[in-house]
Design a protein that fits this description.
Layout (H helix, E strand, L loop, with lengths): L1 H5 L5 H6 L7 E3 L2 E3 L9 H7 L3 H14 L4 H54 L1 E2 L1 E2 L3 E2 L5 E2 L1 E4 L4 E8 L9 E11 L2 E9 L17 E5 L1 E9 L2 H6 L6 E3 L5 E8 L2 H9 L4 H11 L1 E8 L10
Parallel strand pairs: 5-9
Antiparallel strand pairs: 1-2, 3-8, 4-6, 7-8, 7-13, 8-9, 9-10, 10-11, 12-14, 14-15
Helix pairs in contact: 3-4, 7-8
Length: 296
């Protein structure tokens, strides 16, 4: 009976290659057959042994314990989500810093270029009785600073003297701070030059020098004593050029300008925001033609 339960005849090829299990031992009146390690013999002995079902369950539990539990999967997904959010936050911060740096660099370049252009034009300004000017009606030219230092109006001479008449053309120049913009208008003419002092002046032909200008102001020093004593004025009109002029531009970046204009309903908060995020650019211009300019 032991042989009928525990031992199954195997092919001669399998018996020749694999180890035959030892005879079963009796335990409590029943045969106990150890499960062989051979995959060929395992099915037959599993059916024959009373402990085969327990061994199969142990093997199944071993296979199931090798996977991940639901809690482990949730913890892994949570950690992965946190890491993705951290990387996205770092990328967003880097992108914002790059954008701010680019806007600041553009703002610096634009402000310096505008101030340099205005300084060159102002250094060529003329006023008072000008010899050999064409047309002669403009022989007594004025220099004007008005509107709390936000407008500069003056004339300059353009080009070399005419070979036949010896006269020079007149160029009318205007610098104006429009809301958040700095504009210029100039035109050179011989018979009908641009008149920057006209009250009916049309700004349709003006050009935008620079945008995102929160504030522009020019201050003139009328005499050497005023310069020594630090007395400046934002309103000046004379047929004599001032000693020098200080110009200042308060700039904001593109994003900061949009935020500042959005705070117009709260002037205090707006002023605080501009004070924190704006940048001031300034220059001083001297007038070499103040002593008079004669046509050559």
């Amino acid at each position: 009976m032991i042989n009928a339960i525990a031992i199954r005849r195997l092919p001669s090829e399998a018996l020749g290659r694999r180890r035959v299990p030892p005879p079963p031992e009796r335990y409590g009146g029943q045969a106990v057959v150890p499960l062989p390690s051979s995959p060929v013999c395992r099915p037959c002995f599993a059916r024959a042994s009373p402990f085969a079902s327990e061994a199969t369950e142990d093997a199944s539990q071993g296979r199931l314990s090798s996977g991940f539990t639901l809690i482990e999967v949730l913890v892994a997904m949570t950690v992965l989500s946190v890491m993705v959010l951290m990387v996205a936050n770092i990328f967003q911060s880097s992108s914002a810093s790059w954008n701010i740096g680019t806007q600041k660099a553009d703002m610096n370049t634009a402000a310096r270029a505008a101030l340099d252009f205005m300084a060159r034009e102002l250094q060529s300004a003329v006023a008072g009785p000008i010899e050999a000017v064409n047309p002669p009606a403009l022989s007594d030219l004025q220099f004007e600073l008005k509107n709390a230092g936000k407008e500069i109006r003056f004339y300059s001479l353009s080009g070399d003297p005419d070979s036949s008449s010896g006269t020079r053309a007149v160029r009318g120049i205007l610098f104006l701070h429009d809301p958040y913009q700095l504009k210029s208008q100039r035109r050179t003419g011989v018979s009908s030059p641009f008149n920057p002092y006209s009250d009916a002046l049309s700004f349709s032909g003006s050009q935008i020098l620079i945008t995102n200008v929160w504030m522009f102001q020019a201050l003139a020093y009328a005499s050497m004593d005023d310069l020594v004593n630090g007395f400046s004025t934002d309103s000046y009109q004379s047929n004599m050029l001032p000693i020098c002029m200080d110009m200042a531009i308060v700039m904001l970046s593109d994003d900061d300008m949009m935020r500042a204009t959005a705070l117009s309903s709260d002037p205090t908060e707006q002023d605080n925001f501009v004070a924190r995020n704006s940048k001031l650019y300034s220059t001083r211009v001297y007038f070499p033609n103040r002593v008079g300019y004669g046509g050559r």
